[in-house]
Specification:
The chain is α/β, with parallel strands linked by helices. It contains six helices and 13 strands. Strand 10 and strand 11 form a beta hairpin.
Length: 260
């Protein structure tokens, strides 16, 4: 089997929309990476092949809420009542009309305890999924590019993305109360990341325990910007990021967008 992992574009889809994609046979190694319109995307081999759509970090916001005890949250229990509860909890926290937003609850969430809710534009997500399905690439899962929770290193991590003209960093792994932060590519991002490190690691800067990655388009800029603070920067390709995202346990296809 194989998996086609593709990044959703920041704008609503149109005739000229192209998708950056990675094709993998084992979920860990990229067989192919390129950009193509929906109709020209490769098809994952059957049986067992799937299409995974990745929502970019800048298209998502993360909200932490406590849902009322006794409210069913499992698969098949995402009712209009649950949607209404989320709208009520989030309407004062989001800039847009809550009715126009898509919500997704973290895996394994329990009512009565704080849970993470991913939030994005509802029409944008739906139209992208419909465009892919119309091209014969029906999406099986929708995953976030980055998600809250512990990182592989057990400490905060930074990933520099974008272009030299519009570079930014994504900060993850700051603790249970912090989601995913998207920040300008400056030394301030490095300061914030180091502030969230365990004291023993933060006190020892010489071993560069803080993980900082950058995609090829901005790796030189990241090295110039963050290297001033003695920070090493590791190259991390778009394919590697796509594979990491697809291995996560989130699925944003919930409520009216739930996979069937």
């Amino acid at each position: 089997m194989s998996t086609l992992i593709l990044f959703l574009p920041p704008a609503r889809p149109g005739p000229a929309t192209e998708y950056s994609y990675t094709l993998t046979a084992d979920g860990h190694t990229a067989l192919r990476h390129a950009t193509a319109p929906a109709a020209l995307l490769p098809e994952p081999t059957r049986p067992g092949g799937e299409v995974v759509a990745v929502v970019p970090a800048r298209a998502l916001s993360w909200q932490r809420v406590s849902l009322p005890p006794g409210l069913p949250l499992g698969a098949g229990q995402q009712t209009p009542r649950l949607r209404s509860v989320l709208e009520g909890l989030l309407e004062d926290r989001v800039l847009d009309d809550a009715a126009q937003l898509h919500f997704a609850i973290q895996p394994g969430a329990n009512a009565g305890s704080p849970v993470w809710v991913a939030v994005c534009d509802r029409a944008w997500l739906r139209e992208n999924l419909q465009a892919l399905e119309a091209a014969g690439r029906r999406v099986s899962r929708v995953v976030p590019e980055f998600a809250p929770g512990p990182t592989a290193s057990g400490s905060p991590e930074l990933c520099a993305l974008g272009t030299p003209e519009e570079a930014y960093v994504v900060l993850t792994g700051q603790g249970a109360e912090q989601g995913v932060a998207v920040l300008p590519l400056t030394t301030m991002a490095l300061t914030l990341a180091r502030a969230g490190m365990p004291p023993a690691q933060a006190a020892d800067d010489e071993d560069n325990t803080l993980v900082v990655r950058a995609e090829p388009s901005v790796v030189a800029l990241a090295e110039r910007t963050l290297g001033q603070q003695g920070q090493r920067v590791a190259l991390h390709t778009t394919s590697q990021r796509a594979l990491d995202a697809a291995r996560g346990d989130w699925d944003l296809a919930q409520f009216d967008l739930a996979s069937t």
